[in-house]
């Protein structure tokens, strides 16, 4: 009786991994956005040593986003590849999730703000000046080619610079549905492995041709390991083998790669996102590290440590609003800095700048979260409700079904 009940619970959990909503994945998304926030906000030069270096590794939050997106999007595509209106429904649902807020932010920041920005050297003029610079290069932003713009022109987008990673994800959304449509899960696993290897090869070839590290950091072919790693996991789960088979190698990888990361930080290696170490191996290491972590989270039974951590309300609520937080957090941070509320203005405690740095992070995060909360409830939800017109699980009619 107990074995039967346990088997039934295990079967239910596997079905949720394969096709339903898992609250722990909201927590994974929450961890990713918190890492990004730490990277951009924890910058006080007065704080040295590991206390400064560890948050500066927060750029890897983007790689965690990539792994999770690859897993979720590939899973959605595989579960609906034999369904009616496969392409139409997928693209419509993605557009409703991504485009309204993305283009609303662009309309506000690179169209409207430059029109009303003063040019008299006032504090408000200094706050809005970066948007005028971004407006001069806005073609890259509107066309989801921000990463290409960064590779060619540098960091010319000011507070909108994080849009480069959204461009990579959009390129993935555009091309991957066709790949999944023509590849059953087992073949898709091989394709995903080839794409991961292709990311490494692309960086090697571009480096050999004289490309700088920034291009290797932002160009789509160079950053495919995370998306492909997540795609591989989604395909593996749908081959009927179960995520549990990946747990032993995932544990080994997590320990080994975690040790490499800790050793690198402790030995004084560069923590910059486009350092030589990052472009040669860092993106691959973090993709495999987060892929392994995702496996252990998915396989974690209810009540275990990992499941409790990523099902916690704090990570999950950050995950729920992570898209808007990602869009808003750097404009908010720039506004706070240009308004004069710099880290140096916060009081020190026992001569330490750490309390001031923490207060700065809390202030920027709090404002960003508030903006994201308002965006979700007043704006985004209206478009998400339209997804009901494009269901992803509509079966084929009998004359077209296998």
Commentary on this structure:
This protein is mainly alpha-helical and 402 residues long. The protein has helices at residues 2-19, 23-41, 50-53, 61-80, 86-116, 123-135, 138-142, 146-153, 163-182, 185-208, 213-218, 225-237, 247-266, 276-299, 305-310, 313-320, 322-338, 354-384. The chain has one domain (18-324). 71% of the residues lie in helices and 0% in strands. The chain is globular and about 65 Å long.
Which structural traits does this protein have?
402 residues, mainly alpha, 0% strand
**Number of helical segments with 4 or more residues:** 18
Q: Which structural class is indicated by helix and strand composition? A: mainly alpha
Report the portion of residues in β strands.
under 5%
Please state the overall shape, judged from the principal axes of the Cα atoms. globular
The structural domain count equals 1
The main β sheet shows up as: none
Number of beta strands: 0
Low-confidence stretches: 1-16, 396-402
Q: Roughly what is the average pLDDT, rounded to an integer? A: 88
Give the helix proportion (percent range).
over 70%
- Span from first to last CA? 37 Å
Radius of gyration: 22 Å
The sequence of SSEs as H and E is HHHHHHHHHHHHHHHHHH
